[in-house]
């Protein structure tokens, strides 16, 4: 593979009632190949959809262990419960736990989430919004709470924004789709995975082993620069096409189907 593309793995919806039978297999694979992923941990899950197995009482011991291995623990909302149909800054899905809410409500949720983390010995600087939905207020609050890394958006490199927040793009789902250059986060939902998915995951790792990186390594070796006007324009168009135009077209097709 003579390309300079780099891949990060991000696992979403990590909580005490996640799909442990699949997760335990994934964890072994990550250890075997020495891969340090980003884990989106829900501080106080109340989302029925994420209640797949019986709750593990040693959950926070496990999270501390992942942290001790150098895996990135990210704050994945507070309770993972959607309270409105706002798609926020990125406009990806019409569900939100944060976007469109008042500063007070958003701040309370973020502080409660962080309190759960801190009382369990978990340190985080990384944000992963449930359903990719958050707004400028959320970003301001995250910054004030010391969370300076946002895992989201469609750039093809890490960059720093006007607020001083670092954006780590995430553009692939469940599997690596080979690229020539750039940084790609592969977002994985273990709750919907089977044993076959784990096997495909191992195949991807073997095929792209040298191009898989970790967030901590990436931040060490990357000089973070802001996006140029051209890059901003390209990502804006990409976002518009992927999540607004396509959505409108699908809606129109359904109307006439
Ligand atoms: Zn989620």
Number of strands: 9
Name the shape in a single word: globular
Bound molecules: zinc ion
CATH superfamily label of the largest domain? Glycoside hydrolase/deacetylase
Approximately how much helix is present in the residues?
25-40%
User: Which residue ranges are poorly predicted, with pLDDT under 50 across at least 5 consecutive positions?
Assistant: none
Element-level helix/strand string = EHEHEHEHEEEEEHHH
Spatial order of strands in the largest sheet: 6-7-5-4-3-2-1-9-8
Short summary:
38% of the residues lie in helices and 14% in strands. It is α/β, with parallel strands linked by helices.
Keywords, please?
alpha/beta, 257 residues, 14% strand, binds zinc ion, nine-stranded mixed β-sheet, 7 helices
Descriptive notes:
With 257 residues, the chain is α/β, with parallel strands linked by helices. The chain folds into two domains: 6-226, TIM Barrel; 227-257. 38% of the residues lie in helices and 14% in strands. A nine-stranded mixed sheet has the order 6-7-5-4-3-2-1-9-8. The protein is globular and about 45 Å long. The model has no long low-confidence stretch (mean pLDDT 93). The structure holds zinc ion. Residues 12-13, 76, 80, 130 line the site of zinc ion.
SSE topology sketch:
Elements lengths: L5 E9 L5 H13 L5 E4 L17 H10 L3 E4 L27 H17 L6 E2 L8 H9 L4 E3 L7 E2 L5 E3 L3 E2 L9 E6 L6 H14 L6 H7 L7 H28 L1
Parallel strand pairs: 1-2, 1-9, 2-3, 3-4, 4-5, 5-7, 8-9
Antiparallel strand pairs: 6-7
């Amino acid at each position: 593979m003579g390309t300079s593309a780099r891949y990060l793995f991000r696992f979403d919806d990590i909580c005490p009632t996640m799909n442990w039978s699949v997760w335990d297999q994934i964890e072994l694979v990550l250890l075997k190949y020495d891969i340090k992923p980003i884990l989106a941990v829900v501080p106080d899950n109340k989302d029925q959809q994420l209640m797949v197995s019986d709750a593990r009482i040693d959950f926070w011991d496990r999270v501390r262990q992942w942290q001790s291995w150098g895996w990135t623990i990210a704050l994945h909302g507070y309770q993972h419960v959607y309270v409105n149909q706002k798609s926020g800054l990125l406009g990806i899905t019409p569900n939100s736990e944060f976007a469109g809410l008042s500063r007070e409500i958003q701040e309370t949720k973020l502080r409660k989430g962080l309190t759960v983390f801190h009382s369990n010995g978990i340190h985080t600087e990384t944000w992963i919004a449930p359903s990719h939905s958050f707004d400028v207020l959320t970003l301001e609050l995250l910054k004030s709470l010391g969370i300076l890394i946002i895992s989201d958006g469609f750039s093809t490199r890490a960059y720093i924004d006007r607020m001083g927040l670092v954006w780590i793009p995430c553009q692939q789902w469940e599997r690596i789709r080979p690229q020539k250059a750039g940084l790609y986060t592969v977002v994985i939902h273990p709750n919907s995975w089977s044993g076959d998915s784990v096997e495909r995951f191992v195949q991807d790792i073997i095929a792209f082993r040298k191009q898989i990186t970790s967030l901590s390594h990436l931040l060490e070796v990357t000089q973070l620069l802001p996006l140029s006007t051209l890059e901003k324009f390209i990502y804006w168009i990409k976002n518009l096409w992927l999540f607004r135009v396509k959505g409108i077209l699908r809606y129109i097709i359904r109307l006439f189907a």
